[in-house]
Specification:
Layout (H helix, E strand, L loop, with lengths): L3 H24 L7 H17 L4 H24 L5 H20 L3 E3 L6 H4 L7 H23 L3 H11 L1 H6 L4 H27 L1 E3 L6 H17 L2 H7 L3 H25 L7 H29 L1
Antiparallel strand pairs: 1-2
Helix pairs in contact: 1-6, 1-9, 1-10, 1-12, 2-3, 2-4, 2-9, 3-4, 3-9, 7-9, 10-12, 10-13
């Protein structure tokens, strides 16, 4: 239980980041590296406001708004200046490094003596890890519910159609520049919320905490798709509702990823090797469909 509860709670907090990465990587079909800047941006804004005495809820909303602004900048560079999405994300990410330093005033900002959203609810639980678990579950449930509702609306369907077939949706009179910007706005808003919550959970915000977050998000998305996306149990439980299955798969994938990380650390892997391990894990997950196809072809050839 000493390992299970912290792993589950951290998996839920990081799953909000994974949902943001899923919106760009799968829904919009864009590789957005703004994530590595908007994640610490959310943490920096929340930490600065909490240090100044603001409410934890106001700090999270402000972090979300800051992440959305970062997504708008990337979307504007992509749609209006016609800079490739990958380069637009890199440019915004680099600019946000300086912005985050300006917001915090220094490279690291401690929250150990500040009231956070978790200390706000500590009166209801004896163990801090249960507080983090409860808050993480509530945040993920609420955000998933809002995403499911939004992407069922006409605007949400237009965003999904933009990633699937932009030529078709433009032929139907939809301005794809607007839908791309909206998708990036929502994605980076979610990423910033995750950054704000994780900073409050860890007790500090650091300008370098966004390094590798895109790989963590991709790992959660890919693992969730491979293990749960095509799972017969998920389809039996939720029917043909593919988008809902995808959202739940991403959340479960984030939890599984954190469990794998906790397990390899428990087995003695040096923490400095985690980034290498994550990269190898994502590469294996991405290559798994190809390996499965090759094995299926080999079985058919044998028969």
């Amino acid at each position: 239980m000493d390992l299970f509860i912290p792993t589950l709670s951290q998996g839920l907090l990081w799953s909000i980041l994974a949902l943001g990465v899923y919106l760009t990587f799968r829904v919009l079909d864009i590789a957005d590296l703004t994530v590595e800047g908007s994640f610490p941006l959310g943490a920096a804004v929340a930490a600065r406001l909490l240090s100044d005495g603001s409410s934890p809820f106001a700090a999270i909303f402000a972090a979300c708004a800051a992440g959305m602004l970062a997504g708008i900048v990337t979307g504007w560079l992509t749609t209006k200046l016609k800079i490739p999405a990958l380069l637009s994300g890199i440019l915004t990410m680099i600019a946000l490094y300086s912005v985050n330093l300006r917001v915090m005033g220094k490279a690291n900002l401690s929250l150990l003596r500040q009231e956070t959203i978790f200390t706000h609810f500590e009166a209801f639980f004896d163990d801090r890890q249960f507080v983090i678990l409860a808050v993480g579950f509530a945040a993920v449930f609420l955000l998933s519910l809002l995403l499911y509702w939004f992407f069922g609306t006409e605007i949400g369907a237009a965003i999904r159609a933009t990633g699937f077939n932009p030529h078709m949706i433009r032929a139907n009179g939809v301005n794809t520049d607007v839908t791309v910007i909206l998708g990036l706005l929502l994605s980076n808003g979610l990423v910033a919320i995750s950054g704000a919550l994780i900073a409050q959970s860890n007790g500090f915000a650091d300008v370098g905490m966004g390094v590798g977050t895109i790989v963590i998000g991709l790992a959660s998305v890919i693992i969730g798709e491979v293990l749960f996306g095509s799972n017969g149990f998920m389809k039996a439980l939720f029917g043909s509702n593919g988008f809902l299955i995808c959202l739940i798969s991403v959340i479960l994938g984030s939890i599984v990823y954190r469990a794998v990380i906790a397990l390899v650390l428990e087995l003695g892997m040096p923490p400095n090797d985690l980034k290498l391990f994550t990269a190898l894990l994502v590469a294996m997950a991405l290559a798994l469909p190809l390996i499965q196809g090759k094995l299926l072809q080999a079985r058919k050839a044998v028969k």
